[in-house]
Amino acid sequence: MPTDIGIGFSQFPNPPEATLQACVQVKNQLDASDTDLIIIFASPEYIVPEIQPIITRTLKPKHVLGSSTGGIILANGVADRGIAIMGINSSVMRFGISAIPDVGILDMHLTGFELARKAIQDLDSPTRKIFITFSEGVEKNCSPFIRGLNEALGKGFPIVGAISSDDFKYVKLFQIFQDQLLQNSAVGLLLDGPFHFALGCRHGFKPLGKPRTITKVDDYIIRTIDDQPAVEIYKHFLGSAAEGLKNITLNSTAAMYPLGIYLEEAGQYLLRNIIDILEDGSIVCQEGVPQGAEVHLMISNIESCRNSAIEAAELVKTSLADRQAKLILVFESLARHKILRRSALNEIQAIKDVLGNNIPIIGMCSFGEFGPFGAMDNLKNTYLHNESILIVALS
Fold it and tell me: Cβ distance 38 to 7 under 8 Å?
């Protein structure tokens, strides 16, 4: 058995009992006394200290990491509560994990560099394939964080992952590392071995109106667009409804209309959620935007979201060529998931129709997705995406 994968899930109201149920499912699928790697995705109320000794006792994991999420992605749909546990045993894959706690007090470039460096040390291999990260607190200053990762891993190294989430209450976001429950932290997983991987990233949003230009910006705060207060772009399209954009959350009307920043090097729109509007009409974005960039208000619907998932899956299939995926990881915007609502299952089924109905699927809905644009042929830059779906397949 080169690589075995098991996935367990439970929504039992008692978190320790739910964890035990999920662990037993994984153990039965792996049929082994211990586990090389455990990844956990759970709604915040299930991430309590009592679950960790249960995981340790039942699965005897060597490496553990995970994240809180407002939506657990599985092969049969998306659950808004519960705990999902994936276990991997492999004689060919190697794993290195790392964590940086309390990232808010640290330089973001150093945070990224140290997160990658520690994972490299833990992997203890001259080669490496892909890096996966879950984090909280890096999203407003993500570019230096990504530069730090690239400095340690190498420019163009594949980096994917997600920002931890909850159900839009912004109260309890967690990262899991070994026997620790962390907050405002970053965790990382570095993989190596004779396996192949492929990825696809799409969002399905379309631009509204003519191009406009960001004329003044302070990092992640857009001051003016076309020399007018930035909020005017919303007033132009939404009229009186734009007044309701104050006190924004990612679950609000504003999430249905992110800003699209056109990037010449990618030939695509990078989406940015707005998280606040200041008294002077400035827009606060979830991450930095470049001054002088072309910007649009963006719009989507259920059909275009589903189609973009199919496009992302097709990119993965093309990259895999004749190889069969053994595991599919999905990182999807929680705000985008709210657009889909009950159609989320149809989106998962569309992915399975492209990549195969019997492949294990696990993932999380997030407050932001790490990855390149498009597919494997565009790995040179990693971005923090909003409102997107990122599919990663290992074969």
Answer: no
**8 Å CB contact between 94 and 125:** yes
- 294 forms beta bridges with 213, 262
- What is residue 258's three-state secondary structure? coil
Residue 116's CB is within 10 A of a number of other CB atoms, namely 27
In terms of pTM, does the model score above 0.90? yes
Which CATH architecture best describes the domain 206-299? Answer: Beta Barrel (2.40)
Token couple for 178: 């070994």
**Burial label, 267 (beta-carbon count in 10 A; 0-12, 13-18, 19+):** exposed
Domain boundaries, the chain: 3-202+305-394, 206-299
Return d(Cα 179, Cα 189) in angstroms, integer.
15
Token look-up 């090097």 returns 265
Q: Mind listing the pLDDT tens digit for each residue in 232-251?
A: 998 888 877 666 665 555 44
Residue 55 Cα distances to 38, 81, 240, angstroms: 9, 19, 52
Please check whether residue 141 is in contact with residue 288, taking contact to mean a CB–CB distance below 8 angstroms.
yes
Alpha-carbon distance 37 to 59, whole Å?
10
Helix (H, G, I), strand (E, B) or coil at 329: strand
The two tokens of residue 342 are 């009950």
